[in-house]
Amino acid sequence: MAALHLGEHLPFRFSHEGAQTIRFPGYLKFRCCKLSWDHAILEAILHCKEALGQIETTTADWRFLETSNMIIDQSACGSCWAATTASVIEAHYEIHHGKARKFSVQEILACTPNPKECGGQGGCQGATVELGVDWVLKNGVNDDETVPYEAADTVCPRDLNPNTLIKSQSGGDRSGMGLAGWQTLPKNEGKPLAKALVEYGPVAISVAADTWHEYGGGIFDGCDKDVIIDHAVTLYGYGEDNGARYWLIRNTWGPDWGEDGYIRMKRHGDNENYCGTDHDNQQGVGCKGDPSTIKVCGMCGMFADSVVPHFAGAKNFSRPGVPSWLLDQASLTEIRGAENMKTVVGASATTHILRRESNHLAKDAKNAPLA
What we know:
alpha+beta; 21% strand; 8-stranded mixed beta sheet; 9 helices; 18 strands; two-stranded antiparallel ribbon; single chain
């Protein structure tokens, strides 16, 4: 018997005598696939492609991150988009660097331009996470200690002191945080959202939050299908409570709101079509000239708009306290070739997508050592 180890937590075993079944522990859904010793490593990966695509953890929860407790109270300023931009970047920074860092919501709020009035008129009058993340990608961002939150519109500190951070002329991150790009997920689909949450980390989403103010705990299901998206928050996980499925969402209304700053919201089944209409798109992420009416799906329209930042380099899971579901997923990510990604920057700076290079996956698979 020979073993190929692609990650400490997921050994592949092959047999001279015939096919061996591969099993992935800790998952609700999986299909086993058969491999034989005579197959090349790449062929093994290709044979397992369908199985890997079917895997879904029963629970995903990123609250082991130190940054998960750094919950801002946006106060009377409509800064949810800037707070969520900082929140999701902070989470991914810690995932990749192994340490927490609190970025300046105020700087993002004051410095991010919004000429097309996407989601509002900018600053405390609203904008989008897409604009915020793109500004950080191109300009970097200071720590909160340097530019603390004021819950008010202020002059951009870069205008007062242009040398605060070196501005990137090439469109890449120059702040040393490692931010390499960002991606918008398919609209009104739950599966890509769950997959991105597990594979990459917390995701910025947009929701209708007008019925959230009295929330004090439990699994919330108080939104109708027709809603108006008006709030940006961070999706931190999903799970089940006595058979009831939920999404775990971090809000921007302080740690005393909800369940320590979080809300659990109903997660519909994969075959449930909980969709309606948003009749005022410009309150969410719509820009001037965009259609005022759009389709929205998921509880409180949470599938309507989702943003994932991407960082260069491997994730840092060397510290204690990393949950088993994530270690299992990290091994699967190695097989999928998650480290072999390329930044794709189009003519427009509105979307920066990291994609895998299949030829690198093939090369790495063929060069994988046998034990």
